[in-house]
Design brief:
It contains twelve helices and two strands; from the N terminus they run αββααααααααααα. Helix content is about 45%, strand content about 5%. InterPro entries: CcoP_N (IPR032858), CcoP_N_sf (IPR038414), Cyt_c-like_dom (IPR009056), Cyt_c-like_dom_sf (IPR036909), Cyt_C_IC (IPR008168), Cyt_c_oxidase_cbb3_su3 (IPR004678), Cytochrome_c_Oxidase_Subunit (IPR050597).
Length: about 300
């Protein structure tokens, strides 16, 4: 009799509803059934999902997906919209196909179209690294100034966009190779520090109080001047930066400079020539050139 009473569900005396048997600090949980209207919607949703699986593409297969009874796919709508957009752009930018970026900039109508198309292409493909306004970040060039590794002319920008920087398998890609003077054992730590101080000296920045500037100048002349020039003005043919303008891709502070000199830097940029059509590349060239640093 005691066991039977113990197994019997507890009924809440206030509501008359059985409890679940769970209890926390003297509080019991009512075993309240779900509302019938809620259960109806739930079961109807299950039936609807089964119907959706049959009518629309829904299930992945090994190499494809189920097509559904009506064969509808949003991908087809997107493809149609993209084709329509390309057709509209082709009409608007008909003159851009045979024009150079310089000619496009000289034509007010083509320039306006190129700027709109170039801004859209920049936002889709370049802003992730260079920023929405092209201001760049550490390791990513600021496209608003006039400091260029390989030049800011229309032709130079187009070349960089088409073939990228250090793209494997692309014979026309931009390549500059600075030795890792520390990692390769060419310079010792104190020598790297002396060169870094001289680089700051070239840029008109304060140097460390005990810096051996004479040593830094000699080491720079022996190891760096062949690319950067004796005065540190750089060489765009080689992609060697100008060290006198206090603008550096990775920073002009001592820590950044010693890291660059000691271990070198090898930044990369995609080759957009295989991803964007020629007209879009021209528009993007004109847009980048117009950001403020074009030469």
């Amino acid at each position: 009799m005691d066991q039977k009473n113990h197994d019997a569900p507890h009924v809440d005396p206030h509501t008359g509803i059985a409890t679940t048997g769970h209890e926390w600090d003297g509080i019991r949980e009512l075993n309240t059934p779900l509302p019938r209207w809620w259960l109806g919607i739930f079961y109807a949703s299950i039936l609807w999902s089964i119907g959706y699986w049959v009518v629309y593409p829904a299930w992945p297969l090994l190499t494809d997906t189920t097509k559904g009874v009506i064969g509808y796919a949003s991908r087809a709508d997107i493809s149609a919209d993209m084709a329509q957009l390309k057709a509209q752009r082709a009409v608007q930018a008909a003159g851009m196909a045979d024009a150079t970026p310089a000619q496009i900039k000289a034509d007010p109508t083509l320039f306006q179209i190129a700027m709109a198309q170039g801004k859209a292409a920049f936002g889709d493909n370049c802003a992730a690294c260079h920023g929405v306004g092209g201001a760049g970040a550490k390791g990513y060039p600021n496209l608003n100034d006039d400091d260029w590794l390989w030049g800011g002319s229309f032709d130079a920008i187009m070349q960089t966009l088409k073939h990228g920087i250090r793209v494997a398998g692309n014979d026309e890609t931009r390549v500059s190779q600075m030795p890792a003077f520390g990692r390769d054992g060419m310079l010792k730590r104190d020598e790297i520090n002396a060169v870094a101080n001289h680089v700051r000296e070239l840029a008109g920045l304060p140097t460390e109080p005990k810096a051996d500037l004479a040593l830094g100048r000699k080491l720079f002349a022996d190891n760096c001047a062949s690319c950067h020039g004796e005065a540190g003005k750089g060489n765009q043919e080689m992609g060697a930066p100008n060290l006198t303008d206090a603008i550096s891709l990775y920073g002009m502070d001592m820590a950044s400079l010693t890291e660059t000199i000691g271990n070198s830097r090898n930044g990369v940029m995609p080759a957009w020539g295989g991803r964007l059509d020629e007209t879009t590349l021209k528009a993007l060239t004109v847009y980048v050139h117009s950001l403020g640093g074009g030469q």
